[in-house]
Amino acid sequence: MASLLEMKEIFRNADAVCFDVDSTVIREEGIDELAKFCGVGDAVAEMTRRAMGGSVTFKAALTARLGLIRPSYEQVQKLISDNPPQLTPGIRELVSRLHQRGVQVFLVSGGFQSIVEHVALQLNIPTANVFANRLKFYFNGEYAGFDETQPTSESGGKGKVITHLKEQFHFKKVVMIGDGATDMEACPPADCFIGFGGNVIRKQVKEKAKWYITHFDELLKELEER
Fold first, then answer.
1. Are 216 and 198 a contacting pair, CB within 8 Å?
2. Which of 15, 20, 32, 179 is catalytic?
3. How far apart are CA 34 and CA 25, in angstroms?
4. Does the active-site annotation cover 183?
5. Is the peptide bond before 188 cis (omega within 30 degrees of 0)?
6. 54 lies in which domain range?
7. Which of 24, 109, 137, 197 is most deeply buried (CB count within 10 A of its CB)?
């Protein structure tokens, strides 16, 4: 098990850094915002709390929450235009610095592709580096479920994405950064997990993560050490 010093060394020398999106790269939980927008906010927020705590499988929680929300294509687009996701302070600078160092940055999210791609655009991250869940719609725009073949639709999915990235790009050192249980369980195969509590603190993650930060400036400082 790597010590904190070793983890910092891995981060400084990483080939790739994978970020969770909801409550990490952005301040909100995208699915909760969508639920509020569709008028079922309270019920869905409670389900999200249970899912992030790790007490139910991610796919079961996602299926139940989307079954309540049943968002139309039009509602998803209107949410993005009327209430665009708010970037977490410091993330723009951190991603820019990683890019300057030649580090590949990926967004690996249990959230929705259309919302996460909007975030990627703001951070100059190519959409090919986005791994998220895809909503499905009927021809009339009504909700038709979600793509259950996406690895991020189930528990352990983020680890599968990282394994895929290592195999495809031959990365030696991959770092995962996130606020939730699904992020922490992606290490291994990630070589280092950094818990993030700048927007919301998940007790289980704070207690178990060896490296836990509350502001992205802490990681920027690490990069300046070299």
1. yes
2. 20
3. 17
4. no
5. yes
6. 32-80
7. 109
Looking at the fold, whether 155 and 95 belong to one and the same domain comes out as yes
Percent of the chain with pLDDT over 70: 95
Out of 2-11, 51-60, 211-220, pick the least confident: 51-60
Q: pLDDT digit string (tens) for 194-207? A: 888 878 777 777 77
- Identify the domain boundary among 50, 65, 80: 80
Identified catalytic residue from 15, 22, 32, 191: 22
Angle between helices 91-100 and 217-224 in degrees, nearest 10:
30
Q: Based on the residue annotation, tell me whether 22 is a catalytic residue of this protein.
A: yes
Note whether 132 and 143 are same-domain residues.
yes
In sequence order, the 6+-apart residues with CB closer than 8 A to the CB of 188 are 159
The reply to whether 41 and 114 lie within a common domain is no
Q: Which of 46-50, 106-110, 129-133, 220-224 has the lowest mean pLDDT?
A: 46-50
Same domain, yes or no, for 51 and 106?
Answer: no
Looking at the structure, do residues 118 and 53 belong to the same domain, yes or no?
no
What is the distance between the alpha carbons of residues 151 and 132, in angstroms, rounded to a whole number? Answer: 8
Residue 149 CB burial class (10 angstroms; 0-12, 13-18, ≥19): exposed
Domain count of the chain?
2
Inter-CA distances, 74 with 27, 43, 52, 103, 114, Å: 23, 22, 27, 36, 12
Which of 15, 50, 80 is a domain's end point?
Answer: 80
Q: What is the mean pLDDT of residues 106-120?
A: 89
Q: What is the CATH number of the domain that holds 23?
A: 3.40.50.1000
